[in-house]
Amino acid sequence: MRAGAVLDSMSxxxxxxxxxDESVSDQEVLKVFDYxxxxxxxxxxxxxxxxxxxxxxxxxxxxxxxxxxxxDGLVSRKKLGARAVGWWAxxxxxxxPETAARVDERKDADEWESL
Length: 115
Description:
By secondary structure, this protein is mainly alpha-helical. 45% of the residues lie in helices and 9% in strands.
């Protein structure tokens, strides 16, 4: 494989051997659904959403990940046309540990302030 191809494939969510990079967590993928106005997204829209968070992944890579996540019950899908598939999250992304701790501390409080 030529050097440019290695760099191209690495920037598209693949490692040096051409395998899909698993460094993108399921939570990062789920976060895209949380930030979009439309609850149903195509794989290309999820890939574009990941780019906003600095994550480069091809639509093909996202589709493969979403299919695995569907097997785990994290997302669901519906065929929208001859070639289009819409995906939606079945679970919400986890809060980061610091925010979760602050929410837990305030869960019994009468008043909530901004986190």
